[in-house]
Amino acid sequence: MIRFFSTLPAKTLPRLPEAPPARIAAFVLNRLAPRLWQDEDFAWLAGRAIRIALVEPAIGITLGHDGRHFVPMQQAADVTLRAGWQDFLAMIRQEADPDTLFFQRRLQIDGDTELGLHLKNWLDATDWDALRSVLPGPAAHWLSPRA
């Protein structure tokens, strides 16, 4: 019985529609953008689609930028950034940097290499402390580096 419930997310999440989580992610990014990326114009993302995907469960979201806002995209991604959820969490906690994960093959970039490297470098340059400072206590604590 426990095994059934432990595999349930891996079986059901990939079958759910991508649009709702992509809309939520775009909304959250648009709210955070002025605090996290004040000097970023996202011109490198205009007219492009990026996909952020988990290895397991095999789910992801596809986003773009219309020059003013992040937007969910329905088109095929120009680049996909794929990693395990633990690796994305380690990046946010600043316990691992994207370059290290990339060279360890735990962070994969598929598609447009130049766009993928720009995306990876953008993630690396993000001030994750600023993100944690605007989140509610439990979320900020969960995303904080472990001692």
TrEMBL record:
Pfam families referenced in this protein's UniProt entry, alphabetically: SCP2 (PF02036)
Gene3D superfamilies: SCP2 sterol-binding domain
Parts of the chain that traverse the membrane: none
Domain SCP2: from-to ranges: 30-124
InterPro entries per UniProt: SCP2_sterol-bd_dom (IPR003033), SCP2_sterol-bd_dom_sf (IPR036527)
Highest taxon above the source species: Bacteria
Protein name per Swiss-Prot or TrEMBL: Putative lipid carrier protein YhbT
